[in-house]
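Internal ticket - ligand job 185, adenosine-5-diphosphoribose:
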Amino acid sequence: MNPSVHERIRLRKGDITRVEADAIVNAANTSLLGGGGVDGAIHRAAGPDLLAECRTLGGCPTGSARITCGYKLPARHVIHAVGPVYRDGLHGEPDLLAGCYRTALRLAVENGCKSVAFPAISCGIYGYPIRDAARIARDEVVAFIREHPEIEQVIFVLFDDRAYDVYEEVLHEAGLTNGSDDHSS
Ligand code: APR
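stdout (structure tokens):
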């Protein structure tokens, strides 16, 4: 029997560069040439070959994503998603953020990735209110994996306690019991 949706969604607190998923998602910018936050951490951990490949991609529009190799990361691939900068939620930010999750999952399926780890896209430097962003992440992931059993696991990797707690509440309010991993990365 196919594991149900909630069994395939996990929460984990820690550093996404340590996660051994088939693909980890980066919260990138439109240049795809690196930055701070999780973008900086992923490039540091992957090594310079990641930037070299990113240079060949010609950037990525907000609300979309591109896939590369993972190089020195434990993950086979990095999916670079470009989230919106939050203004007031009335300038298309929700749809653009949803597009990041949908496109990242589509790229994962197209590249045979069975497990995908997401950070809280746009919730740092880009200022997206984390509860609103977590609900968008939850709803897009649930809708996608319901139609794509080939995605066996999605892990939301949160970098701090507050973010973890918000995601746990947001999953719980949708009846998705907290499938937290035993170990943090
Ligand atoms: N592992 C997991 N999550 C992390 C890590 C990490 N190593 N480092 C930071 N985070 C978390 C942050 O705490 C935040 O909750 O990732 C979330 C996204 O924050 P940012 O990395 O600031 O990304 P974002 O808000 O999408 O802003 C993107 O920042 O780094 C630049 O080049 C990037 O211009 C782009 C912008």
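Auto-summary: The chain is about 35% helix and 15% strand. Residues 78 and 155 are 14 Å apart (CA to CA).
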